């Protein structure tokens, strides 16, 4: 085993037993050709996964490259990360439909990243953990799916299809959602405009609104907000304070100067230095801190609906 660059070892636990393991360096099988040979029937796997975005996080370079090629062969747009920090950077900068992450990387830092993915910190992203065959998982994270390494072509395609299909077939309003209770559950026709320039933050907020039973139009800066309000009436504006071209404070002042009574909710991070009083002085009705928590969003929306006498 040592001559092959590998090792063999045992792990024992009193009263439980012993497990024996070995590893050695070997070429990683390229499953992209196997995927192309699969007969998926109609609709084809490629059409279902076409242009869906995947992020692979694996510190094994060979496995990472194989999974990148495999997912791209299914028509997906895929990026790879060889470290947790690199993966986090990708998630903060771009939107993804699914993340495939090596389960052996879910130590304290990896578990924190996985939990953020599962809590919709980066939007509605499916999390798949990759575990060496026979090792199981020590991860405490509840993933959306598991794949054994070495990954099999059919298993990879089927799991990705199942996850993506679930997203596409999901009803806009979850009837059994625990957050859809009381007055807020009756307010699904509320017209909401969200002003947010960061695409990841935008996706997260839209996902939360969807879970609460709402839909929202989007504006990327304060100028776009003013244009949108001229084109149609809105009951609520979720206003990011820090935006290019025109920030949320200036946009709010202009909205009030124009005579609009729209309920405006500030969205801002504590680290940016905007105080609650500064937002309220500009004419905003309420304030919510980033990262947004869905319970707080539900509470502020309900308060705004009742306080501004909005009819659903």
Give a short synopsis of this structure.
With 312 residues, the protein is of the alpha/beta class. It is built from eleven helices and twelve strands. It holds the Pfam family Response_reg.
Write the layout of secondary structure elements.
Layout: E1 7-13, E2 17-23, H1 32-37, H2 45-49, E3 53-57, H3 61-73, E4 77-81, H4 84-93, E5 98-102, H5 108-118, E6 126-132, E7 145-149, H6 153-169, E8 192-195, H7 199-211, E9 216-219, H8 222-231, E10 236-240, H9 248-257, E11 263-269, H10 276-281, E12 286-290, H11 294-307
Parallel strand pairs: 3-4, 3-5, 5-6, 6-7, 8-9, 8-10, 10-11, 11-12
Antiparallel strand pairs: 1-2
């Amino acid at each position: 085993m040592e001559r092959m660059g590998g090792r063999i070892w045992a792990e024992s636990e009193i009263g439980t037993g012993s497990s024996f393991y070995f590893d050695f360096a070997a070429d990683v099988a390229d499953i992209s050709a196997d995927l192309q040979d699969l007969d998926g029937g109609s609709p084809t796997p490629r059409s279902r996964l076409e242009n869906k975005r995947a992020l692979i996080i694996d510190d094994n370079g060979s496995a990472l490259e194989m999974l990148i090629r495999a997912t791209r062969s299914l028509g997906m747009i895929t990026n790879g990360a060889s470290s947790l920090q690199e993966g986090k950077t990708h998630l903060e900068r771009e939107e993804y439909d699914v993340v495939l992450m090596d389960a052996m990387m879910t130590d304290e830092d990896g578990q924190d990243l996985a939990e953020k993915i599962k809590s919709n910190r980066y939007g509605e992203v499916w999390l798949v953990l990759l575990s060496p065959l026979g090792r199981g998982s020590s991860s405490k994270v509840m993933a959306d799916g598991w794949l054994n390494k070495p990954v099999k072509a059919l298993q990879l395609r089927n799991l990705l299809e199942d996850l993506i299909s679930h997203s596409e077939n999901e009803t806009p309003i979850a009837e059994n959602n625990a957050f859809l209770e009381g007055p807020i559950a009756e307010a699904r026709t509320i017209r909401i405009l969200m002003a947010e320039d960061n695409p990841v933050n935008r996706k997260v907020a839209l996902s939360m609104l969807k879970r609460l039973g709402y839909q929202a139009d989007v504006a990327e800066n304060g100028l776009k907000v003013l244009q949108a309000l001229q084109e149609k009436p809105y009951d609520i504006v979720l206003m990011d304070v820090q935006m290019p071209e025109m920030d949320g404070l200036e946009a709010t002042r202009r909205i009030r100067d124009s005579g609009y009574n729209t309920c405006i909710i500030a969205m801002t991070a504590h680290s940016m230095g905007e105080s609650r009083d500064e937002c309220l002085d500009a004419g905003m009705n309420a304030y919510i801190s980033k990262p947004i928590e869905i319970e707080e969003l539900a509470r502020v929306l309900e308060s705004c609906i009742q306080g501004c006498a909005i009819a659903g």
